[in-house]
Design a protein that fits this description.
Length: 686
């Protein structure tokens, strides 16, 4: 095929790729992947460094490794659970491979005496050094091929290997079949987009992996980072640009707001009042608002948003509120019903509501009877037709809503006012880069009734002390969040929490604790949360599912397992779940017995301050290249490649290019934004 016959990757469905049938394509769509372009824009979130061969005796716990050895023993146990155990040795020592989920034939794959190469993460288990669900390959000789393997975000039904194969196949199409990733950026100083994308998926095995990680020096990474920062920028700038020439309704009725305030059990803080005034000012003008309300966890953004919403309701117009999770949508719904003192004008809309009921809700929305629509992305589904949508509130804005912003016109005759709420304090040093085009209001202080949270760190070997402390606390009415990190999306994810449950089950009564995690049905999650809210359960054993927004004032103790694996901002978010009620509050950061210097520094920061802005700044400066890709770890706006400090130089180039791009047709702008923030992405209802 000649070069002028290129086909755009965005116009080809993933089913064009070898190995993608109906089922795989359905699974891929859960990751927002529908076209070949989407697949190629599904970038690695990290890499596996298989460039050096390790010796077993030199392995430390928690280390990623590759070893070659001989299979010494294969055994299967059924107690305490079904498990395949494979003992491997090299000239220096031995390690166990543990498999929990496996097909029956796997047992026969491992033959005693065979040579094997194993890659995984080591840990100290009950059999000594072990690794759970490692990658393995039976080998014939000792030849070692260095590799850098991409690690992708996955979803149920798609394994890491499958994802690698699919992306490899898509790359083949680009290389050999004249399929092209459209480059929308005006001329710039970096590598061509196609080349950059291919290299991020398949780094040269002789290169330094750090160059490809966030903040790293690779020109390929920087090219993709440039694209990403621009996508983020134009998602604001483009709305702002269009807003300039648009007029929308002005709202000035404060009667309902005053009534809500009179009935409220607390007074607004000065910061809340100031924020309210600023936002109110915006909605009383005819230029559509585009404003971010940022405030630390628990600073009370929701009531401010509700007061603003009341002016729209008072004028008989509609407000949509997007929450990132069903749990949060529910919580907002309950708050709003209480504050507005009625529920017939407020509807909850999530993907879990039965079709019949949904249709009735749609009708009420279309007729204008419903004034406040609270939900997850279901709020923006095609079938939802608004009568006069005039304000959209995005809660925890960095989680989603980016590409929807550009599409709002379709939902509303005018551009509605838009208010973004974020619990991630954005330090001054970042604000310019990330938020250009947005107006910002800030709530700095917490409500006065807050008790300080005492934070301490504790190595795993002192778990006994922790348990007796928790026992006496719950006997006095305390409630505890006990959080395990979500290690990755693989099936082994729950092992951390299952192991912990084993410990707890020996120490606590079955009625004392319940488990909650992201893979549960929503109804189950809600039931468990309700029981915790009603103080029926004392301990909530959770994955980071509880991170965002959950409000249970009586809970006053937070235990975080493997705290050294979390980003600082994420720890801060988690900790913000306690310290909301009358009791003294504690946060205990459990960590492995030996900490690296950096990990120790990080835990010191989180122990010494509860100021989210300080933590965000420190998080940025402490995080260097080589850290896990994706700021989502740190709770910052989720950039995959762009690093606010290391890539500062890209900023001015991005600014220049973004200004050219906002002059392009809106469809082009939408294409760039959607590559990074797919509108059709079914957001996981965690
Ligand atoms: P966030 O800013 O993290 O979304 P919320 O809006 O959920 O915080 O508020 C956290 C808790 O603080 C809620 O229970 C809310 O009712 C309460 N709250 C909000 N403002 C005040 C205030 N001024 N005084 C006392 N409590 C408040
Ligand atoms: Mg909130």
């Amino acid at each position: 095929m000649s070069s002028n016959q290129k086909i755009e990757a965005s116009s080809l469905l993933v089913t064009t790729v070898k190995g993608v049938g109906e089922k795989v394509s359905l699974n891929l769509s859960k990751l927002g992947i529908q076209t070949i372009e989407d697949l190629l824009f599904h970038f690695p979130i990290n890499y596996q460094d298989r460039t050096k061969l390790n010796k077993i005796a030199a392995l430390e716990p928690d280390q990623e490794f590759v070893v070659q050895g001989v299979i010494e023993k294969v055994s299967q146990t059924f107690v305490p659970r079904k498990m395949l155990l494979v003992k491997i040795k090299d000239t220096t020592g031995h390690i166990y491979l543990r498999f929990f989920y496996y097909f029956p034939g796997l047992r026969n794959v491992f033959k005693e005496g065979s040579k094997i190469q194993v890659a995984g993460t080591s840990r100290l288990g009950r059999y000594g050094l072990e690794t759970i669900h490692p990658d393995y390959e039976l080998i014939l000789n000792d030849e070692f091929k260095p590799q850098i393997l991409p690690k992708y975000r996955l979803t149920k039904g798609i394994s890491q290997q499958k994802m690698r194969n699919l992306i490899q196949a898509a790359i083949e199409l680009v290389k050999n079949k004249g399929i092209e990733i459209q480059d929308y950026l005006p001329k710039n100083s970096l590598k061509p987009l196609n080349e950059a994308i291919i290299n991020l998926h398949q780094p040269n095995p002789h290169s330094n992996i750090n160059e490809y990680l966030i903040g790293g020096a690779s020109e390929f990474r920087r090219r993709v980072a440039l694209e990403e920062i621009i996508a983020n920028k134009i998602s604001y700038l483009s709305v702002r640009e269009q807003n300039k020439i648009k007029k929308t309704h002005c709202f000035s009725d404060k009667k309902l707001a005053d009534q809500i305030l009179r009935e409220l059990s607390f007074n607004l803080t000065q910061d809340q009042e100031n924020a309210y005034k600023e936002i109110f000012n915006d909605i009383s003008c005819e230029t559509p608002m585009l404003r971010l309300l940022q405030g630390d966890v628990g600073s009370g953004k929701t009531i401010v948003a509700a007061l603003i919403a009341s002016s729209i309701v008072a004028d008989n117009k509609q407000v949509a509120i997007l929450a990132p999770t069903t749990i949060l949508a529910n919580q907002h719904y309950q708050n709003f019903v209480q504050w507005f003192g009625c529920d017939d004008e407020i509807e909850l809309l999530t993907s879990k509501i039965a079709v019949k009921e949904k249709r009735q809700i749609y009708q009420k929305i279309q007729s204008g009877k419903t004034k406040i629509i609270i939900g997850t992305h279901a709020v923006f589904q095609k079938d939802v037709v608004y009568k006069n949508l005039s304000l959209v509130i995005y809660d925890e804005q960095h989680r989603f809503g980016v590409s929807q912003r550009l599409k709002l016109k379709e939902k509303s005759e005018n551009f509605p006012h838009q208010l973004l709420l974020s619990a991630t304090p954005i330090p001054r040093t970042m604000a310019m880069g990330v938020l250009s085009g947005l107006d910002v209001s800030t709530i700095k202080s917490l409500p006065p009734n807050r008790k300080p949270i005492v934070t301490s760190t504790l190595p795993n070997k002192r778990r006994g002390a922790l348990i007796s402390r928790i026992k006496s606390a719950i006997s006095e009415g305390a409630q505890v969040y006990w959080v395990c990190p979500l290690i990755d999306e693989s099936e082994t994810e729950l092992i951390g929490i299952e192991d912990l449950e084993k410990i707890l089950s020996k120490e606590f009564k079955p009625d004392d604790y319940q488990i909650i995690h992201g893979k549960m049905k929503d109804a189950d999650k809600e039931r468990i949360l309700r029981a915790f809210k009603d103080k029926k359960t004392k301990i909530l054993l959770a994955t980071t599912v509880i991170e965002v927004g959950i409000d249970v004032p009586n809970a006053n103790i937070m235990v975080i397992e493997n705290s050294e694996r979390f980003g600082l901002s994420q720890l801060h978010q988690l900790r913000g779940r306690v310290g909301r009620g009358e009791r003294d509050s504690f946060c205990i950061l459990m960590h492995s017995n030996a900490l690296t210097e950096l990990a120790e520094q990080r835990l010191n920061i989180i122990s010494s301050t509860t100021d989210g802005f300080v933590i965000a700044e420190e998080d940025l400066t402490l995080r260097g290249p080589g850290d896990i890709l994706g700021l989502s770890q740190t709770g910052q706006p989720s950039f995959n490649f762009y690093d606010l400090l290391a890539d500062e130089k890209l900023q001015s180039e991005a600014n220049k290019l973004a200004l050219e791009i906002v002059k392009m047709p809106i469809e082009t702008q939408q294409k760039i934004v959607e590559r990074w923030f797919p509108a059709h992405l079914e957001l996981s209802d965690v």
